[in-house]
Write a structure and sequence with these properties.
binds L-histidinol, alpha/beta, 5-stranded parallel β-sheet, binds nicotinamide-adenine-dinucleotide, about 425 residues, 14 strands, 6-stranded parallel β-sheet, binds zinc ion, Rossmann fold
Length: about 425
């Protein structure tokens, strides 16, 4: 039996150092080894291209193939190989995700900033994007939807979907319904290297999207520094932080915590609660509910990273949560929406006991690709504009240039930029 009682902490009696330790992510400790391994993988793909990819496919995924590309015939045929029940559930999820994301499409912005001076934003889809759908512990079919729908809405034409082999018919079905016909049976850090650097058969992309394990996330961070390919965000092992008050339901809280602990042994779940008895009851519920879950190896491992923290006040809970910057923040508190004003850092917030994290993972329509590791302090959840570039367009009339010429001269000469000033003076002669 797992003993998580030792993961109970009383915030007010912790030292500063202990507070930092309690809020630290589990996998940060092994970061150096991961960095080195991923660096080596990227370097090998750079030097040996497809040969390296075949060899890593064999080493990490025990998979051999002639081509990394899945044929169009196989993608189309997936429709005959998945159940009607699955198709029906996907159709509801797709409709909700589409509803929320289609409202995110930006329309052109134009402002006359000064009489005769116009500044405009126009939007263009990123030309080629790579979507990483994880499949180590679980084939995340829902993630294929979360990535493909905003990519399509943004108008991206060249979309490559990439997932560890063998790719399930369910993931191929998502590719089919969203008309994505470039599907690569490649996973892990080597697939990210291939998408960023290109090989003999894999075309490199402009931006890589999607969550993944510690190797995938590290690879995304490294390639974004050594190539022209950018990334959506660091979206690593799932995390959840729950804030609960004395009226919360321990069974509901336990079920939410278990749901995210299920993702990977590096996942972390945290409870901040103002009442000791609720914390104790949540732990009892976790033990009880664990008995109902088959294949709980991952959960048993990741629960070692869990934290159950008794805090003096709800206000303090929000301070701690902002410090931690969780991927998912669930408020099991009365009148939860009144507390939104205290939240500065979180990937996605779930209000009240009838909004479980798992609903957001699949069906509410919100995107479940979210920043982890504390990056919710500056990154946002995935949205359509991540797949677009904003280009600024400016235009001035002759009269506007005349009117502003003195100010431009003053500013450019103050900076010692004589040629800048000259570009105005040259025109003034013709006005
Ligand atoms: N933050 C988010 O938005 C979000 C969303 C969904 C999932 N996730 C997270 O994504 C992660 C998915 O991880 P996963 O492992 O299930 O799938 P994954 O596809 O990210 O990684 C699996 C691949 O990693 C490679 N790999 C495995 N062991 C390796 C090793 N020792 N060295 C090098 N490479 C190795 C293999 O190629 C394997 O196919 C989970 O941690 C989950 O919590 C996060
Ligand atoms: N909870 C994950 C994001 O951290 C998303 C997901 C996919 N499937 C189930 N859950
Ligand atoms: Zn999940």
């Amino acid at each position: 039996m797992l003993n998580i009682n030792k993961n109970i902490f009383y915030w007010n009696i912790l030292t500063k150092k202990e507070k930092i330790h309690v809020l630290s992510r589990p996998h940060i400790n092994s970061n150096k080894n991961i960095k080195e391994l991923v660096f080596k993988i990227i370097d090998n793909v750079k030097k040996h291209g497809d040969l390296a990819l075949h060899s890593y496919n064999l080493e990490f995924d025990n998979f051999k193939c002639k081509s990394f590309y899945i044929s169009r015939k196989k993608i189309d045929n997936s429709s005959n190989l998945v159940s009607k029940k699955f198709k029906d559930a996907i159709s509801i999820a797709l409709s909700n995700i589409n509803n929320f994301h289609s409202k995110q499409i930006l329309s052109d912005l134009i402002v006359e900033t000064y009489p005769g001076v116009y500044c405009k934003h126009i939007y263009r889809p990123i030309q080629s994007v790579g979507l990483y759908v994880p499949k180590g512990n679980h084939p995340l079919v829902s993630t294929a939807l979360m990535l493909s729908i905003p990519a399509k809405l943004a108008g991206c034409h060249n979309i490559t979907l990439c997932s560890p082999p063998p790719i399930s018919n369910e993931i191929l079905y998502i590719a089919k319904i969203l008309k994505i016909y470039t599907v690569l049976q490649l996973g892990g850090a080597h697939s990210i290297a291939a998408l960023a650097l290109g090989t003999e058969t894999v075309k490199f992309v402009d931006k890589i999207f999607g969550p993944g394990n510690i190797f995938v996330t590290e690879a995304k961070l490294q390639v974004s520094q050594c190539s022209l390919t950018s990334i959506d965000m660091p979206a690593g092992p799932s995390e959840m932080l729950v804030i609960a008050d004395d009226l919360s339901n321990p069974a509901f809280i336990a079920s939410d915590l278990l749901s995210q602990a299920e993702h990977s042994q590096n996942s972390q779940v945290i409870l901040l609660c103002t009442k000791n008895f609720i914390v104790k009851n949540v732990i009892k519920e976790i033990q009880k509910q664990l008995l109902l879950i088959p294949n709980k190896n991952i959960i048993l491992h990741s629960l070692k990273n869990s934290r159950f923290i008794v805090v003096n006040s709800l206000k303090e809970c929000f301070k701690i949560s902002n410090l931690y910057s969780p991927e998912h923040l669930i408020l099991h508190i009365k009148n939860s929406k009144n507390f939104l004003k205290y939240i500065n850092n979180a990937g996605s917030v779930f209000l009240g006991k009838w909004t479980p994290g798992a609903a957001g993972d699949y069906i509410t329509g919100a995107n479940h690709v979210l920043p982890t590791y504390g990056y919710a302090n500056s990154y946002s959840s995935l949205r359509v504009s991540d797949f677009q570039k904003i280009i600024t367009v400016q235009k001035m009339t002759k009269i506007a240039l005349q009117s502003l010429s003195k100010s431009i001269a003053t500013l450019s000469l103050m900076e010692g930029m004589n040629a800048h000033n000259q570009s105005i003076v040259t025109r003034i002669k013709f006005l």
